[in-house]
Amino acid sequence: MTPPYSVAIVHYHLHRGGVTRVIHTASRCLTELGIRHVILSGEPDESGASLPVKVVEGLRYHTDPGGPTARQLMKEMKAAVVASLGSDPIVWHFHNHSLGRNTVIADVVAQLAEAGEAMVLQFHDLAEDGRPMNYPLIADAELLYPHSPRIKQAFLNSRDRRHFLAAGLPAGHSVLLPNAITQPAAVKPLEKKPDAALVLYPIRAIRRKNLGELFLLSVLSPKGTRYAVSLAPDAVRWMPVYEEWRAFAADTGLPVLLDVVGRLSPSPKSPRTYASWLRHATHCINTSVAEGFGLGFLEPVTLGKPLLGRNLPAVTNDFAEAGIVPGRLYDRLLVPVEWVGRETLRQRLIRSMRATLESYGEPMSNEHLERSFAAMLHDGHLDFGNLPEDLQRQVIHRLLSGDGLDQVLVEIRAETQPARTWLRRTLKLTEPTAKPGDLLPYSTDAYSSRLKKLYAELIDAKPEPPEEVPKHKILAGYLKPGSFHFLLS
Question: What domains lie within the chain, and their CATH numbers?
Fold first, then answer.
């Protein structure tokens, strides 16, 4: 039986990336469920997939004055929905409406909320969480986080949901909606076992992915080990940091290859494709310092590739609750504080934190400074992943001179050991720590069931005037003293 409602999925664009993949998966799930739907995007789907996409140009990234008003954009969106689906009751499913990438999208959501429309507001990224450049665009929104029995906030991980609950969101107006893990095409094993490890980081190299950590690990890895990053950034704002690492790779000759897909081959005469790099990779890695869901932790399991690198409890705790050990991960990568200097770090912290907090319209208090500085110190060490890039390069140059190779430590569950020893042992292990069957909680079937239940609950709920989660409380939760991170500033 066809459900008595349709769904409109709304996003700024359909470029290659995590959110687009989630939307593609959701569309296929809805098709299998027999739920009529349309995807409203500010730009065409660059994948060329045969999905029901309608382009509404006013949805694209737009941060300058001018352009359509919220009322005009809402009118265009409704017209596109009616043209595609007729006049069935609609569930609006917005992705990242509060990210600060469009001048009016938050106001569109507010107007739909006031009209009693059924809505899912799904967060993949938040302007309050390490995106100070985005926040000014949403700071003055009158109704940024509406909720009611017909409006649910959907979260990829429990940590973000806890932030919103602490700020006043009723638990019944929220839902945990983790991404589905889709089974990729099988990767044909190599005929001959490689002589040395090839460690693939399958990401776009934006700042929070922490490229410096790859270079540090490459210094400490067994001879012949190579590290590869699949793609360059696709946003202008991240290119200066990326270009600095490209220049560093050229200057040092370290075995870290950047932007490899389509540009380089993993071995002589092999294709330059992503599939080819996956095939040749002996391991996958994560060094990111922040993620919304953490696809990169689970996808290597589907490929039969072992994962190593940095743990992110904000996302991996949910995996642990599901009984999944995604990889061989360290909690911190520690270097002696004297390699950077306490006063150097403190002065950099003062400058960076003040600028970041000002972007959020917040003053820097002495409590912010002292608690954040104290949080960076770990028994005479600093976590390499929370250093600005120039200080990361300073540390790596010291190691390249042969000084202190065994003073770099990995911390795993409060125990430390030399990172060089840990790497030598870990890179010899070629079996993943989980099996594809362990991922059933994140299957497309499970995702379909969650979507169907969520939409039915919203359509059946009676309209009530929306209330708002106070946005200043959301901001305070993410900016609490002691939480500052250089690579998220």
Answer: 6-180+443-488 (3.40.50.2000), 198-437 (3.40.50)
